Amino acid sequence: MNLKLAQLGEKTRTIVRVNDISFGDGLAIIAGPCSVESERQLMETAVAVKEAGAHMLRGGVFKPRTSPYSFQGLGLRGLKILDRARAVTGLPIITEVLDTRDVSWVSEYADVLQIGARNMQNFSLLKEAGKSSRAVLLKRGMYSTLDLSSVPAAKELTHLPVIVDPSHGTGRLSLIEPMSAAAVAAGADGLIVEVHINPTEALSDKDQALTPQQFSDLVRKVRGLKKFMQEGS
């Protein structure tokens, strides 16, 4: 991770660099499945989102579920699959960490640590993640809906990049594209979107996962919008 202060407009903002990806200077797009389910599923999805224009690969390996009988994630095996997908595609990887005891060894695989909505105020976990050498993507609380007025508000209150999750923020496939466009228009520095090679077979969040083709269409539209905004400014 590399941090750089940049004079953008009237404010000095922090650009977070992960390998060759910049968060806070343009529009960064993170995509991938809610859960790493198998090597085939993850690899095919990773290659598809790379071809569509994603900058970073997401994939959950720990899945805290309401029911103890639901799929709980692959853990270390999932991290190794993500690592192989990074080697094949060149995409940096982001995954959620749930426990202070896991931060150090998950950091050995992940380029970015995600703190999920359930842990927004888990201060012990936040402090431990902050001690790592990895960038951290901190999500809003699970009862915080996708209020896009929070994007310019957060950018006014902080120097850090703001990423929008239209998949979890809406939970509805039909809303992902319009809310992604609205997020870009509101000034978001990036998007994190759920994509699955076959959403109907997904073990978690199947109702809000885009197909690779839907994701490709989304990327084309939001990049067109971003370009239009830049040319008009």
Task: Describe the protein's architecture and organization.
Helix content is 38%, strand content 19%. α1 runs parallel beside α8. It has a single domain, classed as TIM Barrel. The chain is built from 8 helices and 10 strands. The longest helix is centred in the last third of the chain and has 21 residues. The protein has a 7-stranded parallel sheet with strand order 8-7-6-5-4-10-9. A 3-stranded antiparallel sheet has the order 1-2-3, with no helix packed on it. The chain starts with a strand and ends with a helix. By secondary structure, the chain is an alpha/beta fold. The model has no long low-confidence stretch (mean pLDDT 90).
